[in-house]
Protein: ABC transporter ATP-binding protein
Amino acid sequence: MNTAEVLVRCEAAARTYGTGANAVVAVHGATCEIRTGDRIAIAGPSGSGKSTLLHLLAGLEEPTTGQVTWPGQAGKPRPDTVGVVFQGPSLIPALDVVENTALPLVLCGQPEPSARRRALDCLALVAAAHLADKLPEELSGGQAQRVAVARVLAAAPRLILADEPTGQLDRATGRHVIDVLLAAADTLGAGLVVTTHDPRVAGRLTQQWSMRDGRLQPDPDAFSPSAPATPQGAEP
Ligand SMILES: Nc1ncnc2c1ncn2[C@@H]1O[C@H](COP(=O)(O)OP(=O)(O)OP(=O)(O)O)[C@@H](O)[C@H]1O
Structure:
């Protein structure tokens, strides 16, 4: 029996965008549980619903049918319970890097000076402390991605959801970011879910799932060479 704590539970959770002839079913009835200690990689072709699934798990999108619940929590999760490393640009343009990184803590009520100190520590973990005073527009895509990882770590969530967190990183930096995410998940006693196209990233995690046309399933062969083709991103 698995005694680890369930952090999020999806019961036949589906998400459809649009209506009628324009409806797109991004996620079909996903059923899963994610627990403390889970280290899950999700593979799937572009457009198969991986980001939508992470948004459902984070409470950022409502399922059209079915349900998503966070046992032990009232209502939606906060940034200090579920943290998301988004795939695209997610930093607030008017805030500098340290302010962006500290923001989830400040929103959760932490005084600004201690939030800034924690933000700087987390920026250092992803080798981005030297970027603290920069604005998002001054960052490369890879630097912004590392700051987005630091922002999630700063909030010390119990569940970390990372959407292609190495997609814009070179191999060595990508490997380092996965090291940091795994170490943070261990330290926090958290669950970690990473979407990726890269077998090397998936190989660092202990469970492999796949999304195909919006359908989620455990799939130990999701990243094997014979799996349906997925574009290869930058390599960690
Ligand atoms: N806000 C939206 N409005 C309408 N359709 C959407 C929206 N977001 C996603 N979709 C559609 O839902 C489907 C799943 O998209 P999603 O971004 O979840 O896929 P993905 O597997 O994460 O893709 P990628 O690997 O390219 O990031 C796609 O057909 C997409 O066009």
Q: What stands out?
A: The chain has a mean pLDDT of 91.
